[in-house]
Amino acid sequence: MSDHKIEQIRVHRINIPAKAVHSHGSGDVAGIHVAILEMTTDTGITGWGEASPWPVFTGTAEGCAAALHVHLRPHLIGRDPVQVEKHMSMADKIVVGHPEAKAALEMALLDITGQIAGLSVCELVGGRMRDDMGMSFSIANPDFDKDLEDVAAMWADGVRIFKFKTGFADHRFDLMRLEKMREIYGEEADIRIDYNQGLAAYDAVRRVRDLEVFRPTFVEQPVKMHEREVMAHITHVIDAPIMADESVFDPRGALYAANIRMADIFSLKIMKSGGIRRALEVAAIARAAGIEVYGGCMFETGLAHAAGTHLMAAVPDLILQCEFYMSTYYAQDDILTEPFPVRNGRVHVPEGAGLGVRVDPEKLAKYAVADPLN
Ligand SMILES: [Mg+2]
């Protein structure tokens, strides 16, 4: 029991435009449309959380704002913020799905708990295994020449990991881009491929095989999220490691995927699992099954990125690094008071109590798409 009580909960809905449209096997995205949770205690501590949905993948910002404001808020006001699992179990009982809203709730609770305890969020959930990790940037601009300019600038910044979004245009376009990338940057580039469910199951193996000659570190989510047995088949016959993203959301999904060896790697995302602690449960299942994990993100501000870095800082082993690039290289602006820490191609886990980052209220007002829900 702590001496603190949740006094106020406010939900902001914002939209930050992107520098360029990004295309994926599941559609185009031109901005970061998220719900931000501001939770204040009667002792004057503020915790921040973010729900970053993708409508073709998880849910909507409008739905998350309603889940938080209408359905969860009445069960939180007056309660002790440090009883995190109690509140998360309540959330699972009250609202089905909405993992991004639950991620936002857990983020704000852990941010407050960390400030009370004087510990960072990664320390609250197990400890800091690393202070920084390699950052992957996604090549997803339909104008490939523009992407090449961006890659050149990032290469100079020390970025070496690039994930090609494939399957949104012609197969030959994908082959051409990968060939060009290897031609320019050779073996020093760590190239990954993400289909975002873009291939038809009947000829997915043949197309993935065509791309294997470019030696991708992994091939992510070639087919539809519900085609889990097709994923398992592709994993079985293709030499390159296959990663499940859309097909694995939470511990239950991870258990099924591990049992049928659906993939060699799981992409961990707090927006899929419903928070950092559930994502660590997914990581534990993966570890027991000999499956690697990767730090994925949605279309997020630096706030959700910070939470993602705390998750990935607490994972025991991390070979494949992470992709928290949105606030630095994709969005036109961020909502944090200090830039999200990316240096020399590496993401740095914020120091300090709680999430270790603070939100600028003026930025929330600037990018608001609706009045805050109080
Ligand atoms: Mg993905």
Automatic annotation (TrEMBL):
Q: Which GO terms describe its molecular function?
A: chloromuconate cycloisomerase activity; magnesium ion binding; racemase and epimerase activity
| Top-level division of the source organism's lineage | Bacteria
State which Enzyme Commission number(s) the record gives. Answer: 5.5.1.7
Which UniProt keywords are listed? Isomerase, Magnesium, Metal-binding
Q: What cofactor is this protein dependent on?
A: Mg(2+)
What Pfam families does the entry give? Answer: MR_MLE_C (PF13378), MR_MLE_N (PF02746)
Annotated ranges, domain Mandelate racemase/muconate lactonizing enzyme C-terminal:
145-241
Q: One GO BP annotation here?
A: peptide metabolic process
**Which EC class does it fall in?**
isomerase
Family note: Belongs to the mandelate racemase/muconate lactonizing enzyme family.
Question: Which PANTHER family would you find in this protein's record?
Answer: O-SUCCINYLBENZOATE SYNTHASE (PTHR48073:SF2), O-SUCCINYLBENZOATE SYNTHASE-RELATED (PTHR48073)
Q: What is the protein named?
A: Chloromuconate cycloisomerase
